[in-house]
Write a structure and sequence with these properties.
It is built from twelve helices and 23 strands. The protein starts with 23 loop residues before the first strand and ends with a strand. It folds into three domains: 21-119, Alpha-Beta Plaits (2-Layer Sandwich); 150-452, Peptidase S8/S53 domain (Rossmann fold); 455-547, Sandwich (Immunoglobulin-like), CATH 2.60.40.2550. It is globular, with a radius of gyration of 25 Å. By secondary structure, it is of the alpha/beta class.
Length: 548
């Protein structure tokens, strides 16, 4: 399924050059003078949650956070046009005009910097919701707890993170897509609805709040994260809360969609969203004069790319699919996957090999892209027609699978910044030491990322293999034990160099469980050498521990 879309580089294009009769225009303003807003009173235009995110990550309120001057808006509207969207980050408006002759008078306003065409106006049709629920007559369970999605989360070693209780609870995710057909009545989202997990919706194409139309693409994307039907399909962040934003116009490809995306990202920012998932990408348009060249995929040209980077600067972790052009004429990633601060995601098969369609890097300025990869061939997604699971192909699905796991991981470490989480995910990729332009840093091991972010960890896996993520200990020491197919008796002891037992604990670990055994009061022990003994049934391990 090809949905990693196609958009623009914002070079100046005159109306005379355009191949279409445009009615939507981008008006860029010179300044924010005469604004009633102030950086000293951000509570007037940012939510408490948005301010909290900035405070936690040490992000200052800047001029680009200020809304556009209402006085400037009023003067432009007085020319007989309608404002469709606003972008405070770019101090710009998207306007709808019925008579293009008014553009000259708007351009002559002293605070207008430029005007350029971006698309055609489409009158919105009233959305229709169906009351009928789907029956359960074809509810085909499987033995795996994550159902048909077991392989796509197991590939990322994400089950262990979930078992520790981190499934996205308390995290907010914005999904930017082309439509969310039937989401309001799909059984895969019963759990989401039960905890009021859809926090809000908005259609940035039509200008209303009805997003359950136009396309099922967003429905499938959302299902890889938010589904919660055990033994059928469980997503990678089933307990997170979501905003559903429609930004893609499925009836044509124009620069307007890029402006829609930025407007949605700004909305997400002001609401305090933690993660943005975008299974969209743009390289070419219905009006070919808007097309990108490979040289434009440089992290600096496209409006959507620059907007994605600003979203990251505001503390949001932006995850974007890299594209499905790997075997096509274009070949490379699109925008905004080329953004410097966006985590762009490639696709692999269930065996970890690269999907043939996954777009290639590098960017035109030579940076490694994509950044990481997840399953994008035969990804399990929820059917819009009932309890069936569909298999879908595309980085459109590897992206949200990754975004959901990032959301769950970040829940465990809320004091980390978006860049710290993103860097750790890349560090834990299977080819992190040799990243390339095919899969970037590779397939991340999220449990390993969890261990590293925990600062100290010793792991014994279900096969009996032991490894450590630490060299020295400061004030924390955890032992992670993954059990296999039978109950295990676990005994842990901490010894000093005189072989005196300082701490011991014995516990039975259930079948197919994983648990962290935290050594208490580690900060109170003096510096020096210690020995940790771990006994699991009849297998014993001895590990040196150096306390700083």
């Amino acid at each position: 399924m090809k949905y990693i879309l196609t958009i623009l580089a914002f070079s100046f294009i005159s109306i005379a050059q355009a191949q279409y009769n445009f009615s939507m225009f981008w008006v860029e303003l010179t300044d924010k003078d005469n604004t009633p807003y102030s950086v000293f009173h951000p509570e007037d235009f940012l939510s408490y949650r948005a301010l909290e995110r900035r405070e936690k990550q040490g992000i200052a309120i800047e001029e680009n956070d200020l809304p556009i001057s209402p006085d400037y808006e009023a003067q432009i509207e007085s020319k007989g046009v309608r404002i469709h969207h606003r972008s405070k980050w770019f101090n710009s408006l998207a306007i709808h005009v019925t008579d293009t002759s008014v553009l000259t008078s708007i351009k002559n306003l002293p605070f207008v910097k430029s005007i350029r065409p971006i698309g055609q106006y489409r009158k919105a049709k009233a959305g229709k919701m169906h009351k009928k629920r789907f029956q359960q007559d074809n509810y085909k369970k499987v033995k795996q707890p994550y159902g048909y999605g077991q392989s796509q989360i197991s590939m990322l070693n994400g089950v262990a993170v979930h078992k520790f209780g981190y499934q996205g609870d308390g995290m907010h995710v914005a999904v930017l897509d082309g439509g969310f057909l039937n989401v309001y009545r799909m059984p895969f989202f019963d759990s989401l609805r039960a905890h009021n997990g859809v926090l809000g919706t908005h259609d940035f194409v039509d200008g209303d709040d009805f997003v359950y139309e136009s396309s099922s693409h967003g429905s499938g994307v959302l299902s890889t994260m938010a589904s919660n039907l055990p033994y059928l399909l469980v997503g990678t962040a089933p307990k997170a809360s979501y905003y559903l934003f429609k930004t893609e116009d499925t009836k044509g490809e124009f620069r307007m969609e890029e402006f829609n995306w930025v407007a949605a990202a700004e909305r997400a920012d002001s609401l305090g969203v933690d993660v943005i998932n975008s299974s969209l990408g743009y390289t070419s348009f219905s009006d070919t004069s808007m097309n990108y060249t490979y040289e434009d995929i440089n992290g600096e040209t496209a409006l959507i790319t620059r907007g994605a980077d600003i979203a990251a600067e505001k503390g949001i972790l932006v995850v974007n699919s890299c594209g499905n052009e790997g075997d096509g004429k274009w070949h490379y990633i699109g925008t905004p996957a080329d953004a410097k601060n966006v985590l762009s995601v490639g696709a692999v098969r269930s065996d970890g090999k690269r999907s043939f369609f996954s777009s290639w890097g590098p960017t035109a300025d030579g940076r490694i892209k994509p950044d990481v990869a997840a399953q994008g061939t035969k990804s399990a997604t929820g059917s819009i027609m009932g309890y069936d699971v569909a298999y879908s192909n595309g980085t459109s699905f590897s992206g949200p699978i990754m975004a959901g796991m990032i959301t769950s991981l970040w829940q465990a470490f809320p004091d980390k910044t978006n860049f710290e989480i993103m860097d750790m995910v890349k560090l834990c990729g299977h080819q992190a030491t040799k990243p390339d332009s095919s899969l970037g840093y590779g397939i991340p091991n999220f449990f390993y990322a969890y261990l590293l972010l925990s600062e100290a960890g010793i792991v014994v896996d279900r096969e009996g293999s032991m490894f450590s993520t630490l060299s020295t200990v400061k004030d924390r020491l955890g032992v992670f034990i993954e059990n296999g197919e039978e109950e295990a008796k676990v005994e842990i002891k901490l010894h000093n160099k005189l072989q005196q037992v300082l701490y011991q604990k014995q516990e039975f670990l259930p079948v197919n469980d994983i648990k962290e055994f935290r050594i208490p009061n580690m900060e109170d022990y003096p510096s020096g050498l210690y020995m940790l003994s771990i006994k699991i049934n009849y297998q014993s391990y001895w590990i040196k521990v150096i306390k700083e």
